[in-house]
Amino acid sequence: MLATDPDVAFPAPGALPAVLGATLVVAFGWSIGGRGPLAWAIVSAPLRVIGRLSYSIYLWHFPVDVSLRAILGEGAPTAVVALLTTLLLAWASYRFVEAPTLRWAWPTTAAAGWLRRAPDLRRRAVEGVVAATVVALLVGVVGAQRLPDLQYPGGVLQAIGVSSGTPVAASAGLPSTDAAQRAVREALARRSWPEPVVSQLDRTVADIERDLRRCLNLIDSDLSDARSCTAGPAEAERVAVVVGDSIAAAYSPAVEAALVPLGWRVETMAFAGCSVLGRADDPHGDDREAARARSCGLARDRMVRFAEAQRSDLVIASASVQAFARDVPVRVRADRWQQSTAAGLAELAAPGRTVVSLTAPPNRERITSCAIRSAGPSSCESDASGGPNTDREVKIAAEGAAIADVAARGAVVHQLDVTDWFCTDGRCPAIIDDLVVMYDEKHIVPALSAALAGPMREVLSPYLR
Fold it and tell me: Does pTM top 0.85 for this prediction?
């Protein structure tokens, strides 16, 4: 038996150990007669029993494994229980279904055989139907637990056992980072999906489309006519500008909710896939990458000019982990990101202006792919530094080094790591304060972003003159 990491690609190289194992068994098959070095192993009683049960093991292992992981969670104890359960069910189905079927003595005439053994055949047929029904029901239940094919999150509602007609109360918001941490810990302790997530899930797609795109531009659009959005009084004496890629646009509701009540005006301009902070695209790479680097360079210049035109007192920037995770060695990416971030910060910095870099929230699995009714929200829990976030710490460190370099030259620049808004001890829940964190893999939903006004105001307060 071999356990593999779920991140290992399949069939290559994930299936290689199984293929090699089967090849070795075939290659040493001649030893069964007692002449080879593996004869003692191949003809041993335990392997012969496993061989007889192999087809039943094959049929049972997948539904048992998926069902028990959904009920008991991940871990070695679950794997042991799954193994023992699979062997038990495989023995039972072999003993009472497969073996009797193999022992049937078919008559020369089907009609005569039926007349002679009708009661016995009927009994065996009933046993087979019952066994097949049990298997079908188990597979059906397992299939209903996971939601890999849902395209609209409203379908999650039925799967997690709540009604889409349930009204949702607006979040009172999180007043501080400590409050966010408490909400994160409470969410990680939950064993069932809370009712208030219902309307959030129903509205998520529409909200993201509306709230992100109102300030977000595509790099192939007319940059001279790039859209932006404004919140707060036009005559405000203090102005904050949010610039960057779609992650910056997702933070915009939090910045607006934090600063507008204090009398600030908040202006936002963002470009999909292009950050004003750094870039990992190689301007000297293939034609496609070079063209993208040029387009992002123009978008970056446009955001810098936008910040200057608004006479901003505070500039808030952010960039996604995906923007950093290009297909080049991590050290090359880190160096390239650090250099381009330093250049972007130097352009944004100006006398009397503070520039703040917000770290991107940890990525996570799409909720429509991970939601499981019986496992509750824990089935969508993510790792702050593993999986899609493996390079996140490297990106944060590269940005920190760039900020230190620019600050040493006299600019007022700061990095704010906001991981504590979303995770604790490396664990990141799918819901916080009864709000879904993300529908997709990287963008916080607008409702949660607005609820983070308190923590946002808290971390920005040292720079609010």
Answer: no
